[in-house]
């Protein structure tokens, strides 16, 4: 019987509403009070049964629930033969629960949208080279899969042939498509907007990045914050207090209707639902943007952060050397082409940066090359002698250097650059400065963090102090410390926490795991690596620095929303109880209507978070 009532609860709600309408029609159109009373009695019974069943289930586990208060209110109205009151109370309570269920489902839309991004089947290559459609559960690591234009990528893997562009918004929160070619990684749940590719499966099912994101968001939405746990404890004791108050008022006043009305009006429904629905909506909004909060407690604590510490490499900077400046002397264009020809033969990190910078230049054939230890490379390209290296290499080959060239080299070095010098036929043609560049827009994002109330912005790095100071000065950071080991950074976190500061640490989730774990809030910059997800409290899936102020703004908005809902819920209960005790116009039906309306108000207020965009977002 219990299962049947729960399964058909929505139908019983509709039946109750229809019977109430018919009862009023019988009274106003046909002037039949007997028919009205009969229909209202039927509506009370049909609506009251599922509420009473829920109350009984709660009592079996020794919980005095809101359903019990409403059940007693309906029984009380029966006893005093106020069938109109009992029917309306039952309907409003059931209808309010229906709206709550629907709107809560809406706030969990992030999970639904994420799950729908994963295809149910995939095209797997067979032994004879053809492709067959198989269920996702049948895929294994190493399988070769075909993805066509508009198709959903079913696994984490690597492109082995073909090309196209993929929309990775489900992973990173960015809608701009990325080009994919052989050797590039792809992720489950992303969409191939155009092109055709074959991919080799590396992670399948729950092991994919996408699978872990879904699991993380589900766990986060189901977790409870300290505020939610406090309210749960409050409502556990508050409900019996309301029941006791109704009994006392009934005994003193000898007014059963007044006692029953207090039972209805004292229900803390909006208070119980207000906090979790805010947190669920905030977590859902973040998930759509590639910002993963590990639970509602994280949101509350993050909103109070006053100190943020940053690693430099890969956080404030891009994490790989890039060509920052090029000084040209003489035939610079030819020298650049010869430089690219030589560097394409090298596996040095600086060589990779240079070939990436000149990716549009066509390389010439290198006829011969020799590495001079501690100096660089000497090569023959298209009949030209090419020297690529440092000042020591130039000195060894007696390359003349003018005062202007020396001044340029000093300027590049003082700016924190590594120098690469290029001479052709013993004439210096190029001086390149390479450094790990600061991410675009970081200065503006740091300013936004200050506007959001963050008082201290610290840079902790393993680089030399001069480089660290240059970065800190350029970005306007509060403090900067260099030449630190990972354990030194964690000690800095501990020291500031001991001073009473709420500390967030931003790192890449790998080298800085001690600090991420130690901080009140660990924020991992990255593309969803296993280490980043497991170590930190907040994961920024696409590693975009502007997600940090966005995530803090969202956390603060979610906490504000939660406080608003608590205020609304308590205010409504207080006003209703005062009204029923101090006025003559308040009755059970009006009170129940206002009570259910307050539940809907807090849910709708929380749903605003689903569309929340901070002023930092363009």
Describe this structure in words.
53% of the residues lie in helices and 18% in strands. It has 618 residues and is an alpha+beta fold. Strand 1 and strand 2 form a beta hairpin. The longest helix is centred in the last third of the chain and has 36 residues, at 547-582. The model has no long low-confidence stretch (mean pLDDT 82).
Structural class: alpha+beta
Distance between the termini: 54 Å
Q: What spatial form do the alpha-carbon principal axes imply? A: elongated
The largest sheet, given as strand count, sense and whether it forms a barrel, is: 7 strands, antiparallel
User: How large is the share of residues in beta strands?
Assistant: 15-25%
Task: For this entry, give a set of tags.
18% strand; seven-stranded mixed β-sheet; 618 residues; elongated; seven-stranded antiparallel β-sheet; 20 strands; 53% helix; 24 helices; alpha+beta
Topology readout:
Elements: H1 2-7, H2 9-28, H3 33-60, H4 66-79, H5 83-107, H6 109-116, E1 121-125, E2 131-135, E3 144-147, E4 156-167, H7 169-172, E5 178-180, E6 185-186, E7 191-203, H8 209-222, H9 226-253, H10 256-265, H11 269-288, E8 291-293, H12 296-302, E9 307-310, H13 312-316, E10 322-328, H14 332-343, H15 349-357, E11 366-372, E12 376-381, E13 384-389, H16 391-396, H17 403-414, E14 418-424, E15 427-435, H18 442-451, E16 456-460, H19 465-475, E17 479-481, H20 486-498, E18 503-507, H21 513-518, E19 521-525, H22 530-535, E20 538-540, H23 547-582, H24 588-607
Parallel strand pairs: 9-16, 9-18, 16-17, 18-19, 19-20
Antiparallel strand pairs: 1-2, 1-3, 3-7, 4-5, 4-6, 4-7, 8-20, 10-15, 11-12, 12-13, 13-14, 14-15
Helix pairs in contact: 2-3, 2-5, 3-4, 3-5, 4-5, 4-10, 5-24, 8-11, 9-10, 9-11, 10-23, 10-24, 11-23, 11-24, 23-24
């Amino acid at each position: 019987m219990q299962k049947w009532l729960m399964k058909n609860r929505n139908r019983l709600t509709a039946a109750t509403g229809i019977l109430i309408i018919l009862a009023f029609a019988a009274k106003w159109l046909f002037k039949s009070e007997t028919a009205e009373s009969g229909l209202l009695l039927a509506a009370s019974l049909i609506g009251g049964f599922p509420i009473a069943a829920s109350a009984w289930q709660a009592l079996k586990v020794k919980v005095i629930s809101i359903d019990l208060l409403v059940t007693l209110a309906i029984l009380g109205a029966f006893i005093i033969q106020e069938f109109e009151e009992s029917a309306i109370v039952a309907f409003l309570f059931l209808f309010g629960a229906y709206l709550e269920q629907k709107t809560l489902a809406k706030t969990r839309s992030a999970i639904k949208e994420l799950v729908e991004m994963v295809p149910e089947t995939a095209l797997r290559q067979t032994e004879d080279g053809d492709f067959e459609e198989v269920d996702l559960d049948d895929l294994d690591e190493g399988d070769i899969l075909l993805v066509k234009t508009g198709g959903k990528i079913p696994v984490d893997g690597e492109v082995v042939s073909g090309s196209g562009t993929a929309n990775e918004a489900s992973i990173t929160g960015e809608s701009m498509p990325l080009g994919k070619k052989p050797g590039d990684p792809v992720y489950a749940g992303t969409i191939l907007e155009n092109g055709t590719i074959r991919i080799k499966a590396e992670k399948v099912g729950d092991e994919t990045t996408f699978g872990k994101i879904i699991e993380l968001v589900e766990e986060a939405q189901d977790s409870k914050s300290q505020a939610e746990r406090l309210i749960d404890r409050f409502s556990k004791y508050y409900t019996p207090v309301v029941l006791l108050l109704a009994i006392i008022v009934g005994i003193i006043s000898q007014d059963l209707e007044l006692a029953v009305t207090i039972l209805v009006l004292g229900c803390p429904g909006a208070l119980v639902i207000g906090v979790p629905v805010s947190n669920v909506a905030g977590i859902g909004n973040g998930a759509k943007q590639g910002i993963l909060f590990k639970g509602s407690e994280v949101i509350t604590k993050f909103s109070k952060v006053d100190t943020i510490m940053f690693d430099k490499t890969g956080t404030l900077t891009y994490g790989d050397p890039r060509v920052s400046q090029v000084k040209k002397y003489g035939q610079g264009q030819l020298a650049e082409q010869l430089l690219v020809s030589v560097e394409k033969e090298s596996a040095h990190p600086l060589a990779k940066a240079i070939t990436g910078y000149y990716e549009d230049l066509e390389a010439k054939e290198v006829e011969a090359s020799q590495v001079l230890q501690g100096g660089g490379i000497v090569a023959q390209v298209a009949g030209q002698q090419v020297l690529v290296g440092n000042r020591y290499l130039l000195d060894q080959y007696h390359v003349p250097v003018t005062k202007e060239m020396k001044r340029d080299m000093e300027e590049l070095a003082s700016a924190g650059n590594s120098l690469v010098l290029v001479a052709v036929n013993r004439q210096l043609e190029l001086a390149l400065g390479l450094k790990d560049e600061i991410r675009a827009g970081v200065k503006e994002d740091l300013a936004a963090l200050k506007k959001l109330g963050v008082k201290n912005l610290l840079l902790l790095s393993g680089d030399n102090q001069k480089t660290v100071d240059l970065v800190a000065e350029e970005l306007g950071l509060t403090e900067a410390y260099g030449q630190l080991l990972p354990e030194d950074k964690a000690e800095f976190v501990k020291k500031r926490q001991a001073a009473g500061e709420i500390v967030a640490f931003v790192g890449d989730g790998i080298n800085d795991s001690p600090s991420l774990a130690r901080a009140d809030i660990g924020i991992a910059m990255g593309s969803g690596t296993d280490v980043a997800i497991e170590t930190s409290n907040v994961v920024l899936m696409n590693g975009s620095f502007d997600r940090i102020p966005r995530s803090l703004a969202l956390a603060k908005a979610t906490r504000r929303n939660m406080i608003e809902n608590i205020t609304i819920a308590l205010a409504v209960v207080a006003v209703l109880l005062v009204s029923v005790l101090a006025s003559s116009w308040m009755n059970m039906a009006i009170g129940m209507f206002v009570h259910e309306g307050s539940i809907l108000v807090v849910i709708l207020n929380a749903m605003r978070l689903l569309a929340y965009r901070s002023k930092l977002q363009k």
